[in-house]
Amino acid sequence: MAEGIGLLRVDTPFLVGPVNVWLIEDDPLTLVDTGANTGTTLLQLRSLLAERGHGLADVGRIVVTHQHLDHMGLAGPLAAISGAEVVGFTGMDAYLADGPASALREERFDRDLMRHHGTSEDTVLGWWAARPDTRGFASEAPDVRTVADGDVLEFAGRTLHVHHRPGHSPSDLVLHDRERGTLLVGDHLLDGHPPVPVIHPPLPGAAPLGLPDPASPAAIAGERSVTARGSALLDLRASLRRTRGLGAAVALTGHGDVVPDIVANVDRRLAEHDAAAERLLAELVARGPGSAGELRLRVAPNGRSHPFFGLCDVLGTLDQLVDEGAATTTTDDGPPRYAAR
Ligand SMILES: [Zn+2]
User: Which in 109, 291, 311, 337 has the greatest CB count within 10 A?
Assistant: First the structure.
């Protein structure tokens, strides 16, 4: 694995399965991500730490790679037990101060987005009824230290450079150990299932939806056309290219195996996006325009992911087609409809 970094893999109550918590055995003793806020997770972390000669109270720093419950849910209880500082991207102080309220806000946003894009009401309500109340898997972490792109986290024996990598979520961070060629990436890179470009409401203090953020990587790279909302996929693609350029060797991921070849992984993801765009364009040409909700059913009728994540995938692909000039969108009455140009 990586020098001085151990893997503590804990279960989650979610479809995604276990999550990787990374333990940096340095001063301060640091957890990168936490797992969800469940008693099982806490007990698993306690015994995995004990196997390495540490107690929960020894943890001095907790870095949250992004705002998803399986990565940050237990931050509050862990900080309360250990007195550790919690570190996250700009806006995560307000977000984590009342994690349950933030989780509820996300759920409402997700449902609104599904309805807005033509998802039937039985799908919207049926899938949420089948979900546990996510608020309970979040927690309250009152004192979060925020970091931004270009900041550094100092340890006695290493320096981690902080990079903002929006796309999978607006708060995604990767931590770069230049000396060892190691990246801690959360869900920005994954070896298995491609990271979903999850659409979120803006972080506390960030620009409201509808106004493209001129500081986003996609805007800086000139890759984002001005659309009615930000594009998680276009942000993700710009972020992936920036990560590709870091020259790091190994990525320690938020789920599953490590990514042993970052350049190959990024190239595979970008190619997958291009292939999805080609397939969806062919569908629009062959069977005509549709809303994103309809198109999700047309291209993946038996999709096994939550329909919200399926919708995010389709919207991302549609953003790419619009951005490349291959498709157009109209918003008269009802849900926005997409057509081949
Ligand atoms: Zn995630």
Answer: 311
Residue 171 lies in domain: 5-275
Q: Compute CA distances 254 → 138, 163, 193, 233, whole Å.
A: 17, 16, 12, 19
Whether omega before 28 lies within 30 degrees of 0, making that bond cis, reads yes
Tell how far the Cα of 187 is from the centroid of ligand 1, in angstroms: 5
How many A from CA of 285 to the centre of ligand 1?
A: 33
Q: Say how many Å lie between the CA of residue 36 and the centre of ligand 1.
A: 12
In a domain, 301, yes or no: no
Exposed, middle or buried: residue 137 (CB in 10 Å: 0-12, 13-18, 19+)?
buried
Q: Is the pTM of this model over 0.85?
A: yes
Count structural domains, the chain: 1
* 290 sits in which H/E element: strand 290-291
Q: What is the pLDDT along the chain (341 residues), one digit of tens a residue?
A: 578 999 999 999 888 899 999 999 999 999 999 999 999 999 999 999 999 999 999 999 999 999 999 999 999 999 999 999 999 999 999 999 999 999 998 888 888 889 989 999 999 988 877 776 788 899 999 999 999 999 999 999 999 999 999 999 999 999 999 999 999 999 999 999 899 999 998 888 876 555 444 444 444 444 333 334 578 999 999 999 999 999 999 999 999 999 999 999 999 999 999 999 999 999 999 999 999 999 999 998 777 678 999 999 999 999 999 999 999 988 777 888 999 99
**What's the CA-to-centroid distance between 331 and ligand 1, angstroms?**
30
Tell me if 330 is assigned to some domain: no
CA–CA dist 15, 225 (Å, integer):
34
- Asked if residue 230 is part of any domain, the answer here is yes
**259 DSSP assignment:** B
